[in-house]
Amino acid sequence: MRLHRILILLLMTSLTARIFASGSVVILDYHSFLGNGTSSLDFSPEELAAQMDRFASLGYRFISLEDALSGNLEGDNNIAITIDDGHRTDMVAYLNVLKPRHIPVTLFIPGFSVGHDAHLLTVSQLQTLLLAGCTIGAHGFYHNYMSSKAFEANPASVLTEANRPRMAIAAKLGQLPDFFAYPFGGAGPEAKAAVQRAGFSWAFAASAKMSEVYPDDPALDHFHVPRTIVYRWSVRGLLSYLKTRMAR
After folding, report:
1. Are 205 and 228 in contact (CB under 8 A)?
2. Distance between the two ends of the chain, CA-based, in angstroms?
3. What is the DSSP string of 200-242?
4. What is the distance, to the nearest Å, from the Cα of residue 159 to the centroid of all Cα atoms in its chain?
């Protein structure tokens, strides 16, 4: 009898989530596009193009992060593309690969580092990407850890990551970012609260875990939305996961 009640409860919970969730999105997280094989996070523009074409051939639609989070999506075959760190190769990836395929992208940039590091986008390039249709979000200020362990060791550092990038990015681009992505993908409750107080509307984690997001699920934490990091070693598993989702 007890097992029977548990099964009913689990079924009701699943059905409730589906009632509230009209559609889902897989949010992918890329990093750089040098194509020199030195990082498991890096792909060549040609590899990126092949992946986008493969996702499309499976039946997936590419939607903006704004549309996904506002619930402007239908069904489960939706992908949103995000790119972290503001690497200088983002320019080629967007203009040569993503834009010609009408694929929206959100770039998460560190508030201080961009414009101060030769490996990263210049302010002028960011302005060009913004005008070309990219959404720009914050990726911390100095790109330091924001975990509970980091907060315990240095609270001021974590608060700087949350408090300073919004105005720093606005000073460079003329608009305040609404989205925040945690450096290194994780955040403790202190960091989440600080990001919310700083005025951001949504904040994003990232990990290798294959995750789908139901934006209108009332249980979704708006300040810890999961994204799936795309590694070189994970592409095959990602494709398998996406195929399985389409077959449901």
Report:
1. no
2. 31
3. -SEEE--BSS---B-TT-TT--TTSB--EE--GGGHHHHHHHH
4. 21
Per-residue pLDDT tens digits for 78-117:
999 999 999 999 999 999 999 999 999 999 999 998 778 8
Write the DSSP symbol of residue 22: S
- d(C-alpha 113, C-alpha 106), whole Å: 18
Please, which pLDDT band fits residue 118 given cuts at 50, 70 and 90?
A: confident
Q: Which positions ≥6 away from 204 have C-beta within 8 Å?
A: 27, 82, 108, 179, 180, 181, 182, 224, 225, 226, 227
* Nearest CA among 166, 72, 172, 76 for reference residue 122: 172
- In a 3-state reduction of DSSP, which class is residue 28? strand
- Per residue in 44-69, pLDDT (tens digit) is 999 999 999 999 999 999 999 999 99
For residues 15 and 9, the answer to whether their CB atoms sit within 8 Å is no
Bridge partners of 83, per DSSP, are 30, 107
Residue type at 28 in one-letter notation: L
Alpha helices in 70-180 (DSSP H): 90-92, 123-132, 148-153, 155-163, 165-173
**Stronger pLDDT, 117 or 211, i.e. the higher one:** 211
